[in-house]
Write a structure and sequence with these properties.
heterodimer; B: ABC transporter transmembrane region fold; 2 domains; elongated
């Protein structure tokens, strides 16, 4: 019997499941791979969780047994108590009462056990989920920037929301249900066979019929569902695009066209949805009534057997069998329903493990950053201490995001301590890429980058990054107070340090004017602040970290001129006395740089001071004056 | 709330009525089955009369088939009905959104509208389908099962009647206690997602400042809280099962005891006893189902509410009854105009000025000084709170909106292109534009140089949001699109910010030659963009601080001088 159930499980997987993603993709099967996935998923349960889980499963067996006993009890009552007493003058109800009381005790046990294992499962599944969430997050923190470059941010989020949700369904519903259903199926089956083998065959026939119908309807419906899914995707994409651009629609009086385009997709979605759900909805009443038909057939066949007195089938046993058969089809269809959930959850688990299997950033660095007497040193593995000065050199660096296409060619440059190096060039010339190599967001393909004479690959990544400050063009803030956001640069900064940094960045004035000052809570998008204010905050955040080397990406437009002056002054203050690499957009920045690198298509095509470059009348001159020489 | 949404059923009303009717039929038939079954056992099996077994059996089979048929049909009808309902809701929302003014859109935000159009509707549709199929199933099933049970025996069913309230109160208590916890859980989930979202978005910042550990502990604490609250909530919910079994087993025990005695004293037959057991199951199952239904309803409530908000939103810009259908020329006049977004404090005060047709006018000022607000009043994207705006000598409130907007073209700060070909995007400006016209507009906007190089040229695909073009390219395409509508007034709202100085100058030059009579209004950050304008309006904090030519303002306006000094005369290094 258990073979039968397993076979069912394997074959049924792809076809069941109207209305889920698995059906939509149509390809996910319960195969070897999913068994492996399942095993890994179960691997999240360790120690206490595993013990509790096993206990819960064991307790389920008890409830399954009691529920079967409850069905056969009906037969016992009829055969052993009612029938013999019918017609007796002074029936003795004491044995019956005793039997019923015994049953009542069993029921109490069953209820208590039920409550216990359900609670245990809640505990287990929730701790496992917490563990999964934290583990994914932890792992994500160690992934290289490349991982984030190649993925839509929505896809990453979806791992945390949809995929973890599906796993949660699996843990808290599917597994317990399937297991308890399996237990019930097995015990009921044994009980049925013990009553009558021939009647059991009838039941098996119905199960096969049900199975065939599910395959047929499920298969057809899965096809419709994948059509619907596609149509829904198109509909949503259209709505999203047009609604995001609603202002443009209005400016161009494009409303009627927008409606027409919408109606077409809406109508299509309607038709696909209706037909997909139609089949899915038909399934339930068919199943329920096949159960009824089976019941009738069993009554007729069993009745004939009981009437003929053959095979030792009594009325009580028949009654018990009828109840059992009713309870038999429920767990069977329960299992088939849960297969959807399992397939979906395993697909989700697959994506979770995909993330967990991503290679983390490589960090073979052994040189550490240490602070002694208020000064920073590089501590080499052999104990040698090199004072941190901020001397950075790039020697013949090549780099490509993919192996086959280099975006930087033969970049060589140096920045002596305290010097300011500006990068200029058009978008895509490689300015940002260069800076991303210095802090090892990416690793160079060829050539080397040294920091105070040490190859940066030998420096521990965290320490390398601690020694580098960065102000990015896109400001990312975090939900929390203004002070929290500034402290992001240095978690243990005192209030005085925070305020000093804000003053340096020219942010103090506007912060003071906020309703709660430094304690004003802002959200991650910083929507309560202007873009310029966000930038001032990000400068303050960097100032509090007080790094010896700075990488600045100047913001371009969208900030008004007055705030821009503030930002400018803040940045200048921040750059003072530090080695600075700046992706420059402003004249004043480049003018007081020690060297300007003009980049084009990944190569440094001109270098020198402002005056020198103007002399050359090359690309720089052209960019600067807006005309060709 | 239900009433408002019910309005969207319309042509699918017949489905909404038929489907529950069939459900009722299905339920009634399935309630009859145990009744016949009792007869089958008592009059057939128990006495060994196979003819009775056969004839009742046949009736039972027919009953089961009929009930199946009704069930299948109701399911199919419900599916069409629900899909149709969703279609209508979606359509109503979308159509209403098309009537929205900018301030309506601001209120919901485009992202908010998208969620309502997609996720919320799917949720409500599911709920509607469940409702049409289940709403009547549970009550009819309980009522008919009770009636049938009483027909068999007038004493035993009282057991149900006593147990039912226990179950109902139990379920109610469970839900009442669990619900607030679930609400808390959903809020926590939002926080959890926010932490992750901010982290993914700001991963560079996290790595730069080596804050991975702190981020992990931040997430850990929220994830732990999520676990604790969901454990609490689910501990309550799992009481459902034991409660249910408790009620079921109580009924079974009592029916066994009392029923057995009745059977012995021959006031009831064994077949009837078995039917009683069937009804116990049926009634309890229905109740369980309705408790789930209620849970689902409450969860969809929020979604339904958000949908209705959109459906009931009234556009706050209305068209006049007898609109002026022409725009005489490209002149613009503001007369003591005040403007505020919603109830916020005014961002434009006492604005009065006049622009002659065909002039080029620059507008300069800091963020929040009211530049964008000022120009958005011209095509009546918003209504002035006070004062009047005249275009071509006519108050914009008297004009036909479509006519007005076709004549006052605007290149928005947030440029949006749509999925489709380049040509299709261009034809937003003018559906009848020929390829030649499009090319010439692209040339004027300095966009032809790169469009030409694209594979397919005009037929090249634009990805959603124009993501396959750089910022500067997108801006130039949007300018070309605006040119094609051949407007009397053309407004650029900081729409060349990502275009380098040289190209920007060429665009300005091209405009001057191609559209000499068109009034051009240019909002810019760079002085160089507006230096040659006939007139420059300097805005400061919602007020006009000066109007004049570059030279005049250099002499008289301090703000203008400040801006000029900070930018000196240098160019910009970006493209």
């Amino acid at each position: 019997m258990s073979n039968d159930v397993n076979a069912k499980k394997k074959n049924a997987a792809p076809t069941r499941g109207p209305g889920n993603m698995a059906a939509a993709h149509g390809k996910i099967r319960l195969d070897k791979n999913s068994v492996k996935l399942f095993g890994r998923l179960m691997g999240f349960m360790r120690g206490r969780e595993l013990t509790l889980f096993v206990i819960s499963l064991a307790l389920m067996i008890i409830t399954a047994l009691i529920s079967v006993r409850s069905s056969t009890f009906t037969g016992t009552i009829i055969d052993d108590y009612i029938k013999p007493m019918v017609g007796t003058v002074d029936p003795d109800f004491a044995p019956l009462l005793k039997a019923i009381l015994f049953m009542a005790c069993l029921y109490v046990v069953s209820i208590v056990v039920n409550l216990i294992f359900n609670r245990l499962l809640v505990d287990v599944s929730n701790s496992v989920l917490r563990k999964i969430r934290v583990q994914i997050f932890e792992h994500m923190q160690r992934l290289p920037i490349k991982y984030f470059d190649n993925r839509q941010y929505g896809d990453i989020m979806s791992v945390y929301t949809n995929d973890v949700d599906n796993i949660r369904e699996l843990m808290s519903n599917a597994i317990p249900n399937v297991f308890s259903s399996l237990m019930t199926v097995v015990t009921i089956f044994v009980a049925m066979v013990r009553i009558s083998f021939r009647l059991t065959l009838v039941v098996l026939c119905t199960v096969v019929v049900m199975y065939l119908i599910t395959i047929f309807l499920g298969g057809a419906s899965a096809r419709f569902f994948s059509l619907r899914q596609k149509s829904l995707g198109q509909m949503n994409a259209y709505a999203e695009e047009l609604l995001s651009g609603i202002k443009v629609v209005k400016v161009y009086c494009h409303e009627e066209e927008a409606k027409a385009g919408f109606d077409v997709r809406n109508e299509d979605l309607f038709r696909k949805t209706a037909s997909a759900n139609r089949l899915a909805n038909a399934l339930m009443p068919i199943m329920a009534n096949i159960g009824n038909v089976q019941y009738v057939v069993l009554a007729m066949v069993g009745g004939a057997m009981a009437a003929s007195g053959g095979a030792g089938l009594t009325l009580g046993k028949l009654a018990a069998f009828l109840l059992l058969s009713r309870n038999f089809s429920r767990p069977v269809s329960m299992i088939s329903q849960q297969i959807n959930t399992m397939v979906m959850a395993l697909a989700g688990a697959g994506r979770v493990f995909e993330l967990l299997d991503e290679e983390p950033e490589v960090d073979n660095g052994k040189v550490e950053l240490v602070k002694e007497d208020g000064k920073f040193f590089w501590k080499k593995p052999d104990g040698e201490m090199v004072p941190l000065k901020g001397d950075i050199r790039m020697n013949n660096v090549d780099f490509g995001y993919t192996e086959d296409r280099l975006v930087l060619h033969d970049i060589s440059l140096f920045a002596k301590p305290g010097q300011k190096i500006a990068f200029v060039g058009s978008t895509g010339a490689g300015k940002t890429t260069i800076t991303n190599l210095i802090n090892r967001f990416y690793d160079v393909a060829d050539g080397g980058v040294t920091y105070d004479g040490i190859n940066i690959n030998d420096i521990k990544k965290d320490d390398l990054r601690r020694s580098l400050g960065m102000v990015l063009q896109d400001v990312n803030l975090f939900t929390g107070t203004i002070a929290d956001n500034i402290r992001f640069g240095k978690p243990d900064a005192t209030d005085e340090e925070v305020i000093a940094a804000a003053k340096l960045a020219n942010a103090h004035d506007f912060i003071e004017k906020l309703p709660e000052g430094y304690d004003t809570v802002i959200n991650g998008t910083g929507s309560q602040l202007s873009q310029g204010q966000c930038q001032l905050l990000s400068i303050a955040r960097c100032a509090v970290a007080d790094p010896p080397v700075m990488i600045l990406d100047e913001a371009t437009s969208s900030v008004d001129t007055r705030t821009e002056v503030l930002i400018q002054r803040g940045m200048d203050a921040l750059m003072h006395g530090r080695t600075t690499f700046v992706i420059a957009h402003r004249l004043s920045t480049v003018m007081n740089s020690n060297a300007i690198m003009v980049l084009e298509q990944g190569r440094i095509i001109e270098r020198g001071t402002h005056e020198e470059l103007l002399e050359q009348k090359g690309r720089y001159y052209q960019l600067y004056t807006g005309r060709t020489a | 709330m239900i009433k408002r949404l019910a309005k969207c059923i319309r042509e699918y009303k017949i489905f909404a009525i038929l489907s529950p009717l069939m459900v009722i039929g299905e339920v009634v038939l399935s309630v009859l089955i145990p009744l016949f079954m009792a007869d089958l056992i008592d009059k057939g099996i128990d006495v060994g009369n196979m003819d009775v077994v056969r004839s009742i059996g046949l009736k039972l089979l027919l009953l089961a088939l009929a009930s199946m048929l009704l069930g299948v049909m109701s399911g199919m009808l419900a599916s069409t009905g629900a899909a149709g309902f969703a279609k209508n809701v979606r359509r109503d929302m979308y159509y209403n959104i098309q009537r929205f003014s900018f301030s309506n859109v601001d209120k919901f935000t485009p992202a908010g509208l998208v969620t309502r159009m997609t996720r919320d509707i799917t949720q409500v549709q599911m709920c509607y389908m469940m409702l049409t199929r289940m709403l009547f199933r549970a009550p009819t099933s309980v009522v008919f099962a009770l009636v049938a049970a009483f027909r068999i025996n007038n004493r035993l069913p009282w057991i149900f009647v006593c147990v039912l309230p226990v179950l109902a109160v139990g379920l109610f208590l469970i839900m009442k206690n669990a619900f607030p916890l679930f609400e808390r859980m959903f809020k926590l989930f939002d926080r959890l997602n926010a932490v992750i979202q901010e982290n993914v978005r700001g991963i560079r910042v996290v790595k730069t400042f080596v804050r991975e550990k702190e981020e992990i502990s931040k997430l850990d604490s929220v994830a732990t809280e999520v676990r604790d609250v969901s454990v609490k909530a689910e501990h309550i919910v799992v009481m459902n099962g034991p409660l249910m079994t408790f009620c079921m087993y109580t009924c079974m025990i009592l029916i066994s005891w009392i029923g057995a005695r009745m059977c012995v004293s021959a006031t009831m037959t064994t077949g009837q006893l078995m039917s009683m057991f069937s009804y116990v199951m049926q009634i309890l199952m229905s109740l369980m189902m309705s408790s789930m239904l209620i849970l689902m309803l409450t969860m969809s409530k929020a979604a339904a509410k958000r949908i209705i908000e959109v459906l009931d939103e009234e556009p706050d810009i209305r068209e006049p009854e007898e609109p002026v259908m022409t725009v005489a020329d490209g002149s613009v006049e503001f007369e003591d105009v005040d403007f505020a977004y919603g109830n916020a404090k005014p961002c434009l005060k006492d604005a009065s000025f006049k622009i002659e047709s065909g002039q080029t006018v620059g507008i300069i000022g800091g963020t929040g000084s009211g530049k964008s607000s000022l120009v958005q009043l011209m095509p009546r994207l918003y209504d002035a709170t006070q004062g009047s705006v005249y275009v071509g000598g006519v108050d914009v409130k008297e004009m036909d909106l479509t006519v007005l907007r076709k004549n006052v073209a605007m290149v928005l700060q947030k440029n949006v292109l749509f999925a489709g070909t380049v040509a299709e995007n261009m034809r937003w400006g003018n559906p009848e534009a020929t390829d030649e016209r499009i090319i010439s507009a692209l040339k004027t906007a300095q966009a032809w140089e790169f469009v030409e190089k694209l594979e397919g040229g005009l037929a090249a695909e634009v990805e959603q949001g124009g993501s396959n073009f750089s910022g500067g390219q997108r801006q130039r395409l949007c300018i070309a699109r605006a040119l094609l509508s051949d407007p009397k007034i053309l407004i650029f709202d900081d729409s060349t910010s990502a275009v380098d100085t040289a190209t920007e100058a060429s665009i300005r030059e091209g405009l001057k030659n191609v559209m000499p009579e068109c009034t051009k209004i240019i909002i810019a950050q760079r002085i160089s963009s507006v230096k040659d304008a006939d007139k420059i309006i300097v805005l400061d904090n919602g007020r006009i601080s000066g109007i004049g030519t570059h030279d005049e303002l250099m002499k008289s306006n301090i703000i203008y001088q400040e801006v000029y000094d900070s930018q000196m005369k240098g160019g910009d290094f970006d493209e």
